[in-house]
TrEMBL record:
Biological-process GO terms, alphabetical: carboxylic acid biosynthetic process
GO CC annotations, alphabetized: cytosol
Domain of life: Bacteria
Protein name: Aminotransferase, class IV
């Protein structure tokens, strides 16, 4: 791979290919219907070109669950692992990058098998800058906090390619001078960010929002942090919460696999409390600091 190329492309069953290679047909269900899923994690490459991938097994397991959620066939994770290993060996650009795995349910008009591929691209400067802190807006997702109960067709907890609402929410927040979003339910509860999980520090430990009936995607970064926090004697729990609880908390963060730990500086223009010590602990637990 030429180092001037800004991203790497690899296709399941083919291996690493030139970035200009056609990935899917015009009638691909992932393209025209959003009928597919993806997962993303961080890959860190040293100066000698060797790379490590954060929590790959957990991301592959979630990827497989998402594929099952859109009625796709059980993925051959050995083949995915080989593709990822080849891509990681080929990617030689030092620094942080995003590794995105993509699956689509095939073609709409002309019969065809499912399609799988991956992309590696350098982490954006914006993502790195936002680790210093973000201003967020609350935006309604338009559903109640239990809307996903007994409704598997809503694809709760599935990381689908249908991300237009998430992207639109981020665009709206940025147009209002904010950096990110916390989605809320119509009954007033905080849910998650468009690409992140919510964690707050309360008097009795760390809280995050529950998955399941809320439809929230299970955050691998939050799970990793909570497991490590428990080992360090910090209590953790899941519960529904509202904005004022965040503003009364000792600190609040949005966590994601690529950006890492981003302290929330304000919510709807109201300053949020800061705990720099806990920010460093969260980053260490998440693998973003030593």
């Amino acid at each position: 791979m030429n180092s001037s190329v800004p991203y790497l492309l690899a296709i399941l069953g083919e291996g690493v290919v030139p970035p200009s290679t056609m990935v899917c047909h015009a009638d691909d269900l992932g393209l025209v219907r959003g009928d597919g899923v993806f997962d993303t994690t961080r890959i860190v490459t040293a100066q000698d070109g060797t790379s490590r991938i954060d929590h790959l097994d957990e991301h592959l397991s979630r990827f497989a669950r998402s594929i099952a959620g859109v009625d796709g066939p059980t993925p051959d994770l050995d083949s995915w692992n080989r593709l990822i290993e080849e891509a990681a060996r080929t990617w030689r650009i030092p620094g942080e990058a995003a590794l995105k795995l993509v699956y689509t349910n095939g073609r709409q008009v002309v019969p065809g098998p499912p399609r799988g591929f991956l992309i590696i691209s350098p982490l954006s400067e914006t993502a790195i800058e936002e680790r210093d802190g973000i201003d967020v807006l609350r935006l309604s997702r338009g559903v109640t906090s239990d809307a996903f109960t007994d409704a598997p067709w809503l694809l709760g907890g599935v990381k689908t390619l249908s991300y237009a609402v998430n992207v639109a929410a981020l665009r709206y927040a940025q147009s209002q001078g904010a950096d990110d979003v916390i989605f809320t339910s119509t009954d007033g509860y905080l849910l998650e960010g468009p690409t992140s999980g919510l964690v707050i520090e309360a008097a009795d430990g760390l809280w995050t929002t529950p998955t399941g009936t809320t439809g929230i995607l299970g955050s691998i970064t939050v799970s990793t942090v909570f497991e490590a926090a428990g080992e360090d004697g910090v209590k953790t729990s899941t519960r529904l919460m509202k904005r004022d609880e965040v503003l009364r908390a000792q600190g609040a963060w949005l966590l994601s696999s690529v950006r890492g730990v981003a302290p929330i500086l304000s919510v709807d223009g109201h300053p949020a409390p800061q705990d720099e010590d806990m920010t460093h602990r969260l980053r260490a637990w998440a693998g973003f600091e030593n």
